[in-house]
Amino acid sequence: MDRDEENYYGKHGEPRKFDPKFRGPIHNRHCTDVICCVIFIVVILGYIALGVVAWVHGDPRKVVYPTDSYGQFCGQRDTLNENKTILFYFNILKCASPVVLINLQCPTTQLCVSKCPDRFATYIDVQASYRYRPDQWNYFRQFCKPGFNNPRKSVAQVLRDEDCPSMIVPSRPFLKRCFPDFSTKNGVLTVANQTTFKDGRGKTRNVTDLREAANGINNVLDARSVGMKIFEDYAISWYWILIGLFIAMMLSLLFLVLLRFTAGVLFWIFIFGVIGIIGYGIWHCYWEYDHLKGIPGSDLTVYDIGFQTDFKVYLQLRQTWLAFMIILCGVEVIIVLMLIFLRNRIRIAIALLKEGSRAIGYIMSTLFYPIITFLLIAICISYWAVTAVFLATSGEPVYKVMANQTLCKYANLTCDPETFNTTNVTKLCPGAQCTFAFYGGESLYHKYIFIFQLANAFVFLWLVNFAIALGQCTLAGAFASYYWAYRKPADIPLWPLFSSFGRAIRYHTGSLAFGALILAIVQLIRVILEYLDHKLKGTQNSFTRFLLCCLKCCFWCLEKFLKFINRNAYIMIAIYGKNFCTSAKEAFFLLMRNVVRVAVLDKVTDFLLFLGKILVAGGVGVLAFFFFTQRIPVFAQEVPVLNYYWVPLLTVIIGSYLVAHGFFSVYAMCVDTLFLCFCEDLERNDGSTAKPYFMSASLHRILGKKKLSPKKA
């Protein structure tokens, strides 16, 4: 027998006398799951080391700045490209789509420029007129390779060596890259109001040759325009959004307070409403059944008419309405019988909901603990995202041979730009160049970047689950202090939330990390299965798709089960201070011994909290709708002028739902904790003077057992 059980029983198993000084969660604790705690700390230190290594090798500029064909960043300070912030493509016709452009895989020379071209021009025309119109040459050569200023060089050699682009077209910058300035005039695709252009190789082409790129680009540009309008709406309505979220917070608090008085009323109104609706359905089915009597064809059976795509055909049959009526009668009978046989358990569930509202009223600080969990998760997400970006940008510049000739055997092979001109590649493949392709590497570090990304994701999941576990254990300890206080609220310890947080960190970091580890492993497997499913989505192998679907379903169910077990294990840890496995086992068997109560309480709680979320989000949403559409005369002059009124409206509705979810998650944890304490109270105590119940008087009256021992003030 361990130290914790001695609080209830003596060393030899004899019942101990009731201790009126006992105030809930065991204070005489010891560290649990120490090995897992040590492993967790080592993993955190390793995670920090991984971040440091990634920060040393990574360079986020590779994501922020576009890179030219020489591996240099556009717009980088203290370089020749400092004032050249935009990437220009020599021949955009070689680029299949905007995705190719953004991924820097377009097989054409790319240069950093200070601005995009604003006119049509070809190298042939500029070279022919440079003697008497030098201004055109000076404008055109800013889009040539740096240092090139030889208009006398033959056109064939210039295009072969890609010293200059064969043409330029009016463009505008997007994503720091020059894209053709597409527009539509009278339903016709144009570039600078022109439908044709010279390609610089002696041909006149239609701008529809760029349609594949134009469609994607125009959609993205339209999205950018919408994005700017949405940003403007947020900029002028943010304080009204905050007011809406504040109203949602106050409504959530009000709903939790009112649950103490209205939980039973709301539940029974809903139940009798369902019974009434089903009753009306039975009457309507009987009316239809009786109304169709004597109508030709109504006495046919479903088997007689066979399968019909028009469902209305079945509604003309008396058999259909008879089947509906029988089904609804069966559902009605089941609901009534459940209410009759489970009425006492439903009363207990409602009493626990009321008790939860009372407990939160005594420990109001618990309502704001989700802010701490949110901050911890935000830190984890930020660290994971930054580390992932640095890992993704850890590669060195990789250069490849880019040849105009399709039969060049050196095409797409890696090369060294410093020694490329001394090789025989340029002789065998005239016009071939050694240009920047992507970032990568051949070192041991670069070979295992994918493994590091997996490790980054796994530790991230572990830390997030640990932050959630810490919050659940902390809240459970605080609410257990309320339940196990013999005289409420006099015996509730001072600062119960802070004390519970200290106990969880000091003694049970290992146990919380153990539970979080199990959940993180399952979640990582689910992520891998989703990745495989995405990669194999186009496969024709039906068995593979079926197997993946089954695995995804199984691991989803496993994750839900583990979350349920972990949640109750953390409650037992907060109360008795045992290790994770023992707490999980005791919580599981305790719940199984009260499985009907668990099911009833779970559904009643879920319904009332869901109703609360809908009421809060819906109420604030309706108020926001009337406000932003200027339908409230008192505030009509205060409404900001918006591009899309639905932007702040949706933000308020979604934000209100999340605010309500944050408050109600505390309430759900409170009810779950009180329920486990209630079950423990029933099993360990009998209501006698020696072992009185700790439950409230209302719960004791519902049980109808022995009279509560008088609680001395």
What's the number of helices? 21
Kindly estimate the percentage of residues that lie in beta strands according to DSSP. Answer: 5-15%
From the alpha carbons, calculate the radius of gyration and give it in angstroms: 36 Å
Give helix % range. 55-70%
Overall mean pLDDT stands at 80
Distance between the termini: 33 Å
Sheet with most strands: strand arrangement: 1-2
Account of the 3D structure:
One of its GO terms (molecular function) is antiporter activity. The model is unreliable at 1-23, 96-104 and 706-713 (pLDDT under 50). Among the domains are: 86-221, no CATH class; 397-440, no CATH class. α1 (34-57) packs across α16 and α7 crosses α20 (646-684). The protein is mostly helical and 713 residues long. The strands form six sheets. Strands 1-2 form a two-stranded antiparallel sheet. It starts with 33 loop residues before the first helix and ends in a 10-residue tail after the last helix. The protein has helices spanning 34-57, 61-64, 98-102, 123-129, 134-140, 155-161, 211-291, 302-305, 318-341, 343-362, 369-392, 425-428, 444-447, 449-483, 496-507, 509-535, 542-576, 580-592, 595-628, 646-684, 697-703; strands at residues 86-89, 110-113, 121-122, 167-168, 171-174, 177-180, 182-185, 188-191, 196-198, 204-206, 396-402, 433-440.
Summary, kept brief:
The chain is mostly helical and about 725 residues long. It is built from 21 helices and twelve strands.
Note the topology.
Blueprint: H1 34-57, H2 61-64, E1 86-89, H3 98-102, E2 110-113, E3 121-122, H4 123-129, H5 134-140, H6 155-161, E4 167-168, E5 171-174, E6 177-180, E7 182-185, E8 188-191, E9 196-198, E10 204-206, H7 211-291, H8 302-305, H9 318-341, H10 343-362, H11 369-392, E11 396-402, H12 425-428, E12 433-440, H13 444-447, H14 449-483, H15 496-507, H16 509-535, H17 542-576, H18 580-592, H19 595-628, H20 646-684, H21 697-703
Antiparallel strand pairs: 1-2, 3-4, 5-6, 7-8, 9-10, 11-12
